[in-house]
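Many introductory courses stop at the sequence. We go one step further.
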Amino acid sequence: MHSGRSPGQAALSLSTREAGAATVIAVAGEADLDNVESLGAALDAAARSPEGPVVLDLAELTFADSTTINVVLRAYGVLGPRLRLAALTPPLERVLGLTGVSDIVRVFRTVAEALEENAV
């Protein structure tokens, strides 16, 4: 299936790191139907840890479609308040607000704020 991306446009890239008991997944590029399964797999892997927050660092995410929102909501169904979104770009913040996702999943201005122990 074709993604609609032009040559040279950013694909999705993920990097995962541990920060104490927390897992931080940095998401960069474009998340869409063609590649969002890698984000789902990273969230599934993080959910296998019995405790600690799972923070999605979205500062470098340039595009997210409805399949991305579904992956985030599915992860919230497993992780509950352990899932935290951080460093949203203004367009992503708007989309998550319009869809109601930011009413369900906690959103933080920075990864550091999301990692604070009492942030839940």
